[in-house]
Amino acid sequence: MAQPAEKDYYRFVVLFFNCLLTFGSYFCFDMPSVLQNQFQGNLTCPNGTVDCVEGLGMTPQEYNLLYAIYAWTNAVVVILAGFLIDKLGNRFGVFLFSFLCVLGSSLFALGSHFKGTPYLMPLMLTGRLLFGSGNGSLTIVQNRITAFWFKGKELALAFGLTLAFSRLGSVLNFFLTQRFEERFGMQWTLWGGAVLCVLGFTSAIVVSSLDKVGMRQLGLEGVIQEESRKVRIQDVKQLSLRYWLLVLTIMFFYNGIFPFIADASKFIQDKYDDYTQKEAAYIAGAVYDSSLVLSASVGILIDYVGLRGIFAVSCAVLTLPVFGLLAFTFVAPLVSTIWLGVTYSFAAASMWPSIPLVVPQATIGTAMGLATSVQMIGIGIANLVVGQILGTKNGDTKIPLWRWQRMMIFMLANTIACIVTSVLLNVVDHRRGGTLNKLTKRSAQAERESDTESLFRGEEVGSDDESDAAPPSHSINSVNA
């Protein structure tokens, strides 16, 4: 009699709870973007002052540092986290990193109670540091679990649904946080975000149990543990050129997304006079709205047609006009944010699921960790550059349009760099057999044939050809075929 883990529905149950891992943390991540006016507002407002916003008194540099330290922490921690996950397993990762999200978001909320004191920035930066340590690493575990259960099956769909759930948290943040703040104040709003991170910790308990039971029923737990012991940190040196070009493509693309979203609400209010803070937050959040709506269908499309490398180039090229419109025209900003959300959806569904196709199965965690690290280094530097471009001494001051235009030019430069690396990626991929651009049906059939032979490749990460080859999937693919 077939075990539950051998049924198709089981991996989708795992996927559901796996998606919930980062729902709360993604809600928390962009709360500063919605509350930027409050973070940069005056410590006190004289009675009768109409335009004054009372807040924490941060400068634009201090505000952008909240995002930069998150990115830098990710850049350092995820390298070690990915390796440890490969060595110690998924259950170790989900418990540790979801707990760090809870701890970091709680400390961040606590720091907001110390406005006007020298403790404000240290507490809030420490909170973002811990939160960044957990959230970036938790995403690696999430992707590793998804890759294990769906490789050779609905991989892009699974990645798309994972992204959709995460972005649902981001979307709800842009729709609800401002309203909640108006009613309950900023401190209680930040504590509400911390409570949502507890949801991720609860989901971690469930998904780790499902993952453990499923691997045991499939008879894979001992095999995976044995393969994990073979993973060495030195294997990083052997990762292929295709992998590193893919990583750079991801970094440059996201350099134009996240730093923009972090400041988008204030940009819209400064450039377009007829938008309130709430309306500006809704428009900025349209990037995530589009991603939420499209992620699943885009994942199904890419699973069906493949051509991931071509999609990567196309996304970068089609993103170029967005920042030009924002910088040099007065076209309604909603057009640009929806447009950016569409290209972001296709990029996320084509780029990240390509990593398991160019590295061996046993090193997916390490590869994901390195990719996230490089991405976050880029985003951290980009946030600092944006802070310097926009820098004014008073956080509530209206930033001149010419500064915003310079910021958009910087976003354009990153997008152009993304086009260059994605074109090089396709050239190298073509020379190595065209793994990324193979039609899905053909590549999936090759994987199913290799599944009948072994669970993992016998060789370790070696030459460029070896490490580039798509690794065979685990036996669940042949069981459920």
- List the total number of helices: 22
**Proportion of residues in extended strands:** under 5%
Low-confidence stretches: 441-481
Give the overall pLDDT as a whole number.
79
Helix-strand pattern: HHHHHHHHHHHHHHHHHHHHHH
Largest sheet: none
Rg, rounded, reads 22 Å
Total beta strands = 0
Distance between the termini: 17 Å
Class derived from helix and strand content: mainly alpha
- The general outline is globular
Helical content, roughly?
over 70%
Task: Please characterize this protein's 3D structure.
- The protein is an all-alpha fold and 481 residues long.
- The protein has helices spanning 8-20, 23-29, 31-34, 36-39, 60-88, 90-111, 120-150, 155-184, 186-218, 221-230, 241-255, 258-271, 277-284, 286-305, 308-328, 333-351, 355-358, 364-390, 401-431, 440-451, 464-468, 476-480.
- Residues 441-481 have low confidence and may be disordered.
Give the arrangement of secondary structure elements:
Elements: H1 8-20, H2 23-29, H3 31-34, H4 36-39, H5 60-88, H6 90-111, H7 120-150, H8 155-184, H9 186-218, H10 221-230, H11 241-255, H12 258-271, H13 277-284, H14 286-305, H15 308-328, H16 333-351, H17 355-358, H18 364-390, H19 401-431, H20 440-451, H21 464-468, H22 476-480
Helix pairs in contact: 1-7, 1-8, 1-9, 2-8, 2-9, 5-6, 5-7, 5-18, 6-7, 6-9, 7-8, 7-18, 8-9, 8-13, 8-14, 8-16, 11-18, 11-19, 12-13, 12-19, 14-16, 15-16, 15-19, 18-19
Characteristics of this structure?
single chain, 76% helix, globular, mainly alpha, 481 residues
Quick structural gist:
By secondary structure, this protein is mainly α. It contains 22 helices and no strands.
